[in-house]
Amino acid sequence: MISIHKNTLLDLEFFTVLQQVADYCICSLGKEAVLHIQPIKHKEILYKELLQTNEFLASYQNNNRIPNHGFDPIIKELKLLGIENSFLEVEGLRKILSIVQTTNTLLTSFDKFKDYYPNLYTEANKVSPSPEIVKAIEALIDRFGEIKDNATPELFEIRQQINVVRGKINQSFSSALNSCSAQDLLDDIKETVVDKKRVLAVKAMHRKKVKGAILGTSKTGSIVFIEPQQTLQYSRELANLEYEEEQEIIRILKTITNFLRPYSGILESYQQYLIQMDVLNAKAKYAQSMNAILPEINSDKKLYLRDAYHPLLYLTNLKKKETTFPQTIELNPDHRIIVISGPNAGGKSITLKTVGLLQVMLQSGLLVPLHERSSMCLFDRVLSDIGDNQSIENHLSTYSYRLKQMNYFLRKCDSDTLFLIDEFGTGSDPELGGALAETFLEVFYEREAFGIITTHYANLKLLANELPNMQNANMLFNQNSLQPMYKLVTGQAGSSFTFEVAQKNGIPFNLINKAKKKIERGKVRFDATIAKLQKERAKLEKTERSLKQNEIKKQSEAEKLEEINIRVQKKLESYQELYDNNQKLIYLGQKVNDLAENYLNNKQKRTLLNELFKLVQIENSKRKQLSKSQQKTEKAKEQEIKKEVEKKVEVIRQKKKAAKKAATEQPVKPKPILKVGDRVRLEDSRAVGSIDKIEKNKAIVNYGMFTTSVSVEQLELVEAAK
């Protein structure tokens, strides 16, 4: 069972948070409910509310928006339903209709998107829809909130008669107006309205000439307001009909009220459900304003707050466009208690309040502003002693109040308690108060309680250093600029920088030196040593960060160089293979060319064929017998090499085309006319043949071993026929 004292909520400014949440509510009952939020005692209810709030928050970022939940309270209407023979006004029926329709819309929506909002869907299932209420009220009231003419046959008949009489009144009044106007009996305004009746504005001197009822005069008495005699009879008839209409409407309202009485419990549940939706929406909006999340909740008593923000400070700084420094802090069974030390105005108290406030907010069903990888646990009790708390009414000094608090802590502290104490041990003699504070801290430690304290006392810092499940922490302080760095570092106590802060605030240096001489040298040396260690730690952290950055940079550069090296190696291997293949092709081409030259000279076909066959056998003897997989690999390599060659050849071709284009731009000498018997060769070729026949711009060229048909345009003249 969770129990958090009201004093703790006041210390941590929890009610200020609730006021900020309430500002996001859209109805008065929702605001009232938010302001009465307390830490939730039962864990099951707490988990349910946290999950529902988280689902509401998620709805802002997806397309499955939750419908509007706004409503007008029906507190008065619910009371009237509980009173016999009472009846609801039309406005009350309108509010009931609105609240029922809004609830039914929400229930339908959650049923449709139950996979997205399972917890909100489960909550919605506790409420039953009532379409019969909507049907009954809509049968009587129109969209303007008025009783419909056809609500009953009697009302319809009465209103028909009212319309007829009103027509007669207008007709008779217009007749009287025209008559009096023609006789110049009326003032310039001619007519006006008195007691919701049209009256003639008759000049006072002519009032006896106009028959009718006098309903008033002007302030000066120069005008008399008269209802014409012709309309008086119809006005009385209208008044009777309007009375009948009123009585019929009351009868209708009594009937619908009696119909709704059995549903009063359902209507109250609808109102409570919509209040709950308003509270959840306000919590989600508040979470959205500061990027709050639902962290992991563990059962291992581990509290790990990463990049945690104080909500009030964060939102205040956000308005001022100032930076808020997050803190990272961890409590677990191995390090249950943290003793934070350091200079004043360094952020100790804010860090303490941040932990306490986030814990109380989470245990009250609110999301908290921290990193998504944070993890929190639940405590049965949160105890705090923060601030002066001097009580004039009870005649308690600061120290007396603190002793009273410690007595309460000693009675309540156990392994399921989180205690938060600011400036532990202050308010009395430093040595005596410090000794008593040390004793209290030992008791809390023995009871395995979890807690955070802030202090300047050296004995508490030493105790935290000696006990295994307790640790020191300090708020970093820049000794050069004498400015706080607002960063919590665990594992080492912090110096109070008493004299440094005094120097920063303009205290003369000679007075500071004089003060140093008045206290024990050992204490000064101890504080100075802590300050020196803190400074060295800051330097080491800076060096470590720099080394890590350099290491990451060098590692990245080494990986890049390795990647480049691999690419270069592959390129070299590819070019080597390409070169070897090209050399091989050049060798074979040279051999074939030599054979062609020999054949050209001696015309011996047999010798040519023998030499070609011998060349093929020699090349085949060099090839190895490869497996299918090896053949595929070799084929793939050949394809790659072929692509490379094609790229090279394409470059050469482009160059040749460019050269040819440049040549064509120069004056070209006329091409000789070829005829049968001419010795010719193809452009860019060394093989020479003779023309056997020319037909339709095609020439049959004989190369000895074979003949081919070639376009005349592609041939170059080597030697003309004699």
CATH topology of the largest domain, anyone? Rossmann fold
Oligomer: single chain
| CATH architecture heading of the largest domain | 3-Layer(aba) Sandwich
**Tally of structural domains:** 5
Q: Superfamily at the CATH H level of the largest domain?
A: P-loop containing nucleotide triphosphate hydrolases
The biggest sheet amounts to: 7 strands, mixed
Percent range of helical residues: 40-55%
- Distance from first to last alpha carbon: 123 Å
Instruction: Output the strand order for the largest sheet.
Output: 1-11-12-13-9-14-15
Top-tier CATH class of the largest domain: Alpha Beta
Percentage of β-strand residues? 15-25%
Molecular structure report:
The chain folds into five domains: 3-148 and 259-290, MutS, DNA mismatch repair protein, Chain A, domain 3 (Orthogonal Bundle); 161-249; 303-518, 3-Layer(aba) Sandwich (Rossmann fold), CATH 3.40.50.300; 554-663, no CATH class; 670-719, Roll (SH3 type barrels). The protein is flat. Strand 14 and strand 15 form a beta hairpin. It has 722 residues and is α/β, with parallel strands linked by helices. The protein has 21 helices and 20 strands.
